Amino acid sequence: MKKSLLFLLLAIMIAPLITKAQDDKPFLIPYLKGDLFGYVDANKKMVIEPQFKFASFFKDSKEGYFAKAYLNGNEVKIYPDGKTELVAQPVFEDQSIDGGIFIFSPNTKSIDSVFMDRIKVNSADFKAEYETRKGYYEVFKKYFVLTSKKTNKMGIIDESGKIILPFDYYEIWPYEPIFNMTTHNMVRVRGANKFGVFSLNGDWALPLEYDHIDSPKEIRGKYGKLKKDNLYGYFDKSNLFKVIFPPKYKFANGFGTDGCPIDFAKASIDGINYFYVNKKGVEYYEP
User: Fold this and answer.
1) Which residue has the higher pLDDT, 138 or 276?
2) What is this structure's pTM?
3) What's the count of helices (H) and strands (E) in the chain, helices before strands?
């Protein structure tokens, strides 16, 4: 009992110190106004006036809590009170924005006798797809990705042999976790030239009309990119693949990459000046 009271008293004494420490490190967001960055709070209230180029988020380090940017051609550290300090090293490791397309072509393996005992298909007509890292072709608990030997196109059936997704596609890739489908049974599908996301419940979460949709290995966290007519947008994998930004950016980085917190990403409308966006669909910039 005495120990419990002691811990309670310590917690009461420490709590104000923790609050103060948190207050000393406000979460500020780089905000692009015109072609200069300042910093705003979560409500977009300006805290540090726009004056910087290539501004980053604030981070803790051995040298303190600061962000980095360029001011009048010089690299500087920025502190939460707006004060700056010159530094000597380059700010950014990589300012490139990833707009590439990654396509995975799964290996194939003939259906063996054990597999044939489970599903009602003819091994002369189909071959089974499998995920190379695991070396096993049963990618869903009760669904199976197969390739037609006649057309060399992929589809999905269940254990009874019922066709869930017709054999019209060149790539089918389940979203994580791959071997225990819990992401609403969603798969990325590639047709001849377009990508979509199909739910094994029978609906299209994202129609087969995109030039690219991030694969499971390209997504960091919950949010992925999609591309249409050479423009990029974002979707929320955890929310039934809801589009949070329609394709409108000439360049877009993944969420949580290039120095961003996991809920933020870099994007650019004009292909020249980048700014930051968050998972709620908020853009931190004004022309």
Assistant:
1) 276
2) 0.72
3) 2, 24
